[in-house]
Amino acid sequence: MPESQPRIDPVLGTTVHIVGGRQSRPNLPDNRSATVCPFCVGGLEAPAPYETRWFVNRWPAMDGDRCEVILYSPDHDASFASLGVDGIGRVIDLWTERTETLGARDDVDFVLVFENRGASIGATISHPHGQIYAYDHVPQRSARLLGPNGWAPTADERLVVVGNDTMTAAVPLAPVYPVAVTIAPRLRVGRLNELGGTARRDLASILADVLDRLDRLHGEPIPYMLWVNQRPFTAGFEDAWLNIEIVSPWRAANLPRYIAAAEIGAGEYFNPVVPEDLVVRLRELRD
Ligand SMILES: [Zn+2]
User: Fold this and answer.
1) Which of 22, 171, 198, 266 has the smallest number of CB atoms closer than 10 Å to its CB?
2) Rounded Cα–Cα distance for residues 279 and 76 (Å)
3) How many whole angstroms from 27 Cα to the centroid of ligand 1?
4) Residue 122's pLDDT band (boundaries 50, 70, 90)?
5) How far is ligand 1, taken at its centre, from the CA of residue 169, in Å?
6) Centre of ligand 1 from the C-alpha of residue 226, in Å
């Protein structure tokens, strides 16, 4: 059996990648000292000094060099938010370069850039890093978001947290998670490489702002999942609108809301946090 085998549920159409080999991947405790961290300079995955760095994941969820790791900073104790506008801008530059390089492959239709931050949502190494998956198809959710009649920024001012000249950050109308913010350009752009210099900097700036607010929302840094929805490398997605989703399961400090039986069973969600209230709280957290 290959290391990764996609299977499709015959009734629901759900795609599940069976990745038995990942059971043996390393789990490093959060407090493991920087000297043994594989992502610190001199470590297994970072032999030479770097500012940002990418490499092929040793424990891929899919076969065929489709899974990469992105190191945000050589500083083990940094966070994405703490990198500041310049540091986040360098990460965006690397996201952009890897997206276009992977997307140029004949066997890649869609590239997903993402980050899992925090041990409670499965980040196995605390050094600030993200990942990239390059798919040979466009996954269902991504196709809905980025296809015809797909996602576009909200026109409802009550949902907008903050904005600058080219970017806005808003809470979704019907978020699955208690904490959810979506960042997007005000004008339609399909992928990161279409952003000009000013928009690129505005994106770094609003990411720094939103991540900082999220880290202060519950008085301590929250676990979060972040991913970038970009136009697929296949026809039929001409109207795609680039956006970055950030969600957290925390409804209060150290109090995750678990996606539970009725939600998995019925596919409908129950969110105890009113999105309009989350907007108010996030707005109040300005510097
Ligand atoms: Zn490290």
Assistant:
1) 266
2) 31
3) 14
4) confident
5) 30
6) 20
pLDDT of 9: 92
| Cα–Cα dist 12/16, whole Å | 11
Interval between CA 87 and ligand 1 midpoint (Å): 16
* Spatial contact of 45 and 39, defined as CB atoms under 8 Å apart: yes
Q: Which fold, 5-284?
A: HIT family, subunit A (3.30.428)
Give distance in angstroms: CA of 40 to centre of ligand 1.
4
97 Cα to the center of ligand 1, angstroms:
23
CA distance 247 to 251: 11
The predicted-structure confidence for 6-50, as pLDDT tens digits, reads as follows 999 999 999 999 988 666 666 554 444 545 899 999 999 999 999
Q: What angle do CA 257, 154, 219 make, to 5 degrees?
A: 35
Distance between Cα 35 and ligand 1 center (Å): 7
Q: How far is the CA of 17 from the centre of ligand 1 (A)?
A: 29
Ranges of each domain in the chain: 5-284
Average pLDDT across the chain, whole number: 93
Residue 271 has pLDDT above 90, yes or no: yes
